[in-house]
Amino acid sequence: MNTSRPIRAVALAAALVTAAGLTACSGGDDDGKITLSVGLFGDFGFGPLYEEYSELHPEIEFEERIAEFADHHTNLTTHLATGSGAADIEAVEVGYISQYTAQPDRFHNLLDLGADELEGQWLDWKWQQALSADGESLIGLGTDVGGMAMCYRRDLFEAAGLPVERDEVSALWAGSWVDYVAVGEQYTADTGGFFFESSGNMFRAMVEQAEEGVYDREDNLIVESNPAIGEAWDLTVDAIEAGMSNRLTAWTPEWNAGFNEGTFATIICPAWMTSYIETNAPDAAGLWDIATVPGGAGNMGGSHLVLPEQGEHAEEAYEFIEWLTAPEQQLKVFEATGNFPSTPELYEDPALTGLSKTYFNEAPVGEIFTAAAQAVQPQYQGPLQGDVLATIGQGLGRIEDGSQSPEDAWSQVLSDLESF
Amino acid sequence: MTIAAKGTGARGGPAGLLRYRLDLKASPYLYIAPFFVLFAVFGLFPLAFTAWVSTHEWSLLSDDHVFVGFGNYTTLLTDPYFWNALGNTMSILLLATVPQLLAALLLAHLLTMRLRAQTFWRMGMLLPNVASVVAVAVIFSQLFGRDFGLINWVLESLGAGRIDWQAGSATSHIAIAVMVAWKWTGYNALIYLAAMQAVPREVYEAAHLDGASRMQQLFHVTVPMIRPTIVFTVIVSTIYGLQIFAEPQLFGGGGQNGVTGGASRQFQTLTLYLYEHGFNRGFEFGYASAVAWTMFAVIVLVALLNYLFIRRIRSAS
């Protein structure tokens, strides 16, 4: 009796595993249906659109795989190199797109699949970002763009004796980032609270606004020689030394909690960030509002959908992403999530420009982000853009936690970048 | 089978005899062959191939593999970040293993006493070990959170003040060591318990008659008697401890800090260092393979030192 029990347990486990294996197999193409796999980082709000598309095309089914941001791109690179494992459709964030346009033969060329007729549909720079260097192949279609704004906590601003209405708040730092830091110094000195969540994010926003970022057009790293980067670094260091940073790392639980608890007063808000705040801080409804970002327009984030060459259903997948990135569908995504469309046709459309968000105290998000997207001057993104910015962000992190002086942190950043 | 073989031998003359001899000699090897074939395919070949790759500049992103001899190893040994990672790994190993094995010994000792619901306590020991490493790391990372972590909340209500566990070297090593110890203490305790139950009762009775206390019995009777088991756990814990990956990776919160073990690399372990080079931007498999082989050497060396150390304790007692 005693000995038979473990044996029975093993047999049961084996049966379960077999059953699971069989169910997994039955999802294949044997019933004439095609399953398109879609690899994303985070929820892109595509859920209802899969259903809508499957109603139009009953033979297509979808399987969504969501991974964490950095893992998603690492996995994609590995899968491309090894020639298997990638989804039919993969999302690529703008910080990684140049890394993939440098190897266009690993992707289906969308120009051959019908995209050549659609060029005018997207913002010109969004289209350019997915083109290979020789302009012969297009690896992805644009989803959203991340024109920047500045989200702020009305309750914290009021408590600090600062204006709370969004126009007045925008006017506080209309001059430049120097004004923003000055307001923050005042805020921190008066209340003892933190003005923003992480210095790396502020630094990145300033860099994205510059004419040239961390790479020049020949893909040389210009971190050391670009004066815009030096200025952004110095100003960020000033802000850190004034104690304005909450020293949070993006996407950690502590960072998430900060939105709800109100541990910081402002955060740089590309359009996609608004949906993130809304879902992460349901208790803070009405407390957040949106003003303009200091220092002019700039783009932070935004994605493309690419079709890895190893995918077998190129035509079906292309047809789907063409439909998905068309203005009508981008508008639906914006309404549902806040990810801002990359198709300028919509920027005249009252359905977009007239949209406001109750969560953000009825802020006219349509109007704010349309203005932001239209003003963006495209910046060239080099192959390791995301990694370079992360390395500099770590340098700022070392100043924040007091383990290095600004000078030492900067020289370590430069020596770390030498290995890139 | 022997009977069948004899049968053929009788009928087939010398040829049958040969087959019988062959059967007798070769069969045992055939029976154990599956293990060795699998080991060769999944163990030996990857090991040798990694050694081969480690002598090349071999990136996953490029199809050219340039032979560089020991170039990767020289770069590795001159990289201060490698030595930093080695130091961190050793520090976490010590912090995790020493208290863990001592606690396991004490727990096992307690479990040998007469307790109510003995099976419950013994099974309970194993529960932390059943939990997935990732779940453990995620939950402990939250407990050790700076702003909203339970541990800081307790510290603060005791008036001790908050600690930014992630920012410092020592604090982050302690946090990671706690995760490892929590998962493995019970497991080691059960192994010790099994060994302790094999110690003859007469020895304890004799010690008891001589007036030895419970604690004296533990250190002067039990420990010397279960020495081979202690050697085993020390070596296994060392091997595991030198390969810690998920705990620091998740403690870093994903993204770049998870790869480098914090902004100052304050808790980057050897495996994280390997991961940073092999599965991050450059996908430098050649260099990562060199790290893997160096790690192998380090593990053999440390395990050997530990073994000699434990043996010294034996001869002292």
Automatic annotation (TrEMBL), chain A:
UniProt-listed InterPro entries: Bact_solute-bd_prot1, SBP
Keyword flag Amino-acid biosynthesis: no
Record carries keyword Membrane: no
Signal peptide: 1-24
Alphabetical list of SUPFAM superfamilies matching this protein: Periplasmic binding protein-like II
Gene3D superfamilies cross-referenced by the UniProt entry: Periplasmic binding protein-like II
One Pfam family from the record: SBP_bac_8
Keywords linked to the UniProt accession: Signal
Entry protein name: Cellobiose-binding protein
Organism (species): Glycomyces sambucus
UniProtKB/TrEMBL annotation, chain B:
Ranges where the ABC transmembrane type-1 domain occurs: 86-306
Short name of one Pfam family: BPD_transp_1
SUPFAM superfamilies: MetI-like
GO biological process: transmembrane transport
A GO CC annotation given for this chain: plasma membrane
Protein origin, superkingdom: Bacteria
Record keywords: Cell membrane, Membrane, Transmembrane, Transmembrane helix, Transport
Similarity comment text for this entry: Belongs to the binding-protein-dependent transport system permease family.
Name of the protein described by the UniProt record: Cellobiose ABC transporter membrane protein
